[in-house]
């Protein structure tokens, strides 16, 4: 299981706000989650997605395309992948690991 940190940036919008595009992406992620393929979490600056790496690449492709479907002509997508193969990792597990050291 891998975890990705992804930010999709539509370039050339008519307003500085991109919340409309973020909402579109969340609808796509919800569909993948409802199918049991991923888990995801929206943060103020990005979205974290957990799943099998091949599926995550499909998800990233789908959310990268979303702004183009609304007429945007340029999209920049930043991706950071954490693919640990010596043990199963989850978003919650990573947080719990850090929190143990805070006690």
- Under the CATH scheme, the architecture is 2-Layer Sandwich
Strand content: 25-35%
- As residue ranges, the low-confidence spans are none
Helix fraction by DSSP (H/I, runs of at least 4): 40-55%
Shape category:
globular
* Main beta-sheet strand count, sense and barrel state: 4 strands, antiparallel
Overview of the structural elements:
The chain is α+β, with helices and mostly antiparallel strands. It has one domain: Alpha-Beta Plaits. The protein has helices at 19-34, 53-69, 91-100; strands at 2-11, 38-42, 47-51, 74-82. Helix 1 (19-34) runs antiparallel to helix 2 (53-69). The radius of gyration is 15 Å and the shape is globular. The chain starts with a strand and ends with a helix.
Topology (elements, then pairings):
Elements: E1 2-11, H1 19-34, E2 38-42, E3 47-51, H2 53-69, E4 74-82, H3 91-100
Antiparallel strand pairs: 1-3, 1-4, 2-3
Helix pairs in contact: 1-2
Pfam families: Thiamine_BP
Protein name: MTH1187 family thiamine-binding protein
Domain Thiamine-binding protein: 4-99
């Amino acid at each position: 299981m891998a975890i990705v940190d992804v930010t999709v940036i539509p370039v050339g919008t008519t307003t500085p706000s991109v919340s409309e595009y973020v909402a579109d992406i969340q609808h796509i992620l919800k569909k993948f989650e409802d199918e049991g393929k991923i888990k995801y979490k929206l943060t103020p600056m990005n979205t974290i997605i957990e799943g099998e790496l091949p599926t995550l690449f499909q998800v990233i492709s789908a959310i990268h395309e979303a702004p183009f479907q609304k007429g945007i002509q340029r999209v920049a997508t930043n991706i950071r992948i954490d693919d640990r193969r010596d043990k199963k990792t989850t978003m919650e597990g990573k947080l719990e690991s850090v929190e143990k050291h805070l006690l």
